[in-house]
Amino acid sequence: MQRFDSIRPFYDTEVNEAIHSSVNHPMMKALMGFTFPDVDEEVWKDQLKRTHSIRDFQCNFIYKSVQNVLAKSSEGLTTSGFEKLEPNTSYLFISNHRDIILDTSLLNVALFDHGLVMTASAIGDNLVKKSFLKTLSKLNRNFLVQRGLPPRELLESSKLMSEYIGQLLLRENRSVWIAQREGRTKDGNDATHSGVLKMLAMGSDESNLMDYFKKIKIVPVSISYEYDPTDALKMPQLIAEANDEIYIKEKNEDFVTLLSGIIGQKKRIHIHVGDILNKELDKIAKDFDNTNKQVQALAQTIDDSILQSYKLWPTNYIAYDLLNKSTTYSHFYTENEKSLFERRLEMRIDENNPQMVDSFLAMYANPVVNKSKYLDAN
User: Fold this and answer.
1) Are 339 and 218 in a shared domain?
2) Phi/psi-derived region of residue 281, left when phi > 0, alpha when psi is between -120 and 50, beta in every other case
3) Which pLDDT band holds residue 1 (cuts at 50, 70, 90)?
4) How many domains does the chain have?
5) How far apart are CA 82 and CA 310, in angstroms?
6) CA–CA gap between residue 334 and residue 340 (Å, rounded)
7) What is the pTM assigned to this prediction?
8) Structural domain for 197, as ranges
9) Where are any strands of DSSP class E within 324-365?
10) What are the tens digits of pLDDT across the range 62-114?
11) Which end of the chain is more exposed for a tag (fewer CB within 10 A), N or C?
């Protein structure tokens, strides 16, 4: 098992030592101060030092942290579809991706609340360059996706990650969360990248790829935030890409985004888990004998599930109408909701930059466009 050491989270036997090494770190103090504002420092330190497993760390500390994030920066989390999942069963959750930390943290809160297996979750190594963040991610059962590698090393890294995901799902009965694409969706268009599915396929020992995907039990997940707490932060990259310019991140940009996602206002949040893909995979195997076409068809199937289940909020409809100078969806929002959204736009975006305004509105409006295609088809 040593071959996974470069990417895996801590084993339970390593947890206590990792906690002892970071219990006095300023960021740990800040995290615990936020989580337990009315508890004396020595009390939470003592409990932390007696923690010997990832599950205990997640249930006794991180679960409470996420509840406080929800209380302070949202109007609550709602869920649907979890009743379809079996306890003591591992699933591969493939999710649209809006926020670096919260997407997977909120899913795990919902899994815990429903008595289901929590996930090991993929996280880009660019987000955990600070040693404390790396320790915290490993305590939180994150495994590393290695970014920015040359082609040959990227292939080896993908193989390793694919094998590790297979190991978790099929041998350790551990669910896995992975985003449908590298990086967060910045323009509101959620789409599964075939490269993610090809990486997963590398771990297959089946002659029929769809049989392997049935075995690892793929569950599409759709997560939607009424307000994206990092909406304004996404604009510079979107503008650069629209102008065919190379976007270079600021030195601490990932860290700023990470913090903004946690503390920024989100209003309401909804997570829907779709049906476990099964019959769909049989159909793909029957319709296509070419692996590339099978992967493309599977990506489309995942997209269909995520986009149809995406919870649209008043902000999405308001943005669509503002962008298109219409009242098409005015029955889905109030004048008060519209003026609050317009106020947010004023505060966060330079209104003298029409390109930036349009990009901001499109980020919220695109889910309406994408979902309407399915409604029109029915």
Assistant:
1) no
2) alpha
3) low
4) 2
5) 15
6) 10
7) 0.93
8) 2-10+73-311
9) none
10) 999 999 999 999 999 999 999 999 999 999 999 999 887 899 999 999 999 99
11) C
C-alpha to C-alpha distances, 87 to 61, 110, 114, nearest whole angstrom: 23, 13, 8
Residue 225, both tokens = 């935030």
List the CATH number of the domain containing 116: 3.40.1130
Residue with tokens 């317009």: 342
CA angle 282, 286, 292 (to 5 degrees): 95
Q: What is the 3-state secondary structure (H, E, C) of 273-328?
A: ECCCCCHHHHHHHHHCCCHHHHHHHHHHHHHHHHHHHCCCCHHHHHHHHHHHCCCC
| Domain end among 289, 311, 333 | 311
Q: Are residues 151 and 288 in the same domain?
A: yes
Cβ–Cβ < 8 Å for 132, 22: yes
pLDDT at 223: 96
Residue 216 and residue 349 share a domain: no
Contact between 225 and 269 under an 8 Å Cβ cutoff? The reply is yes
103 lies in the same domain as 207: yes
Mean pLDDT over the full length of the chain: 92
Q: Do 233 and 158 share a domain, yes or no?
A: yes
Q: Does the residue 33 lie in any domain? A: no
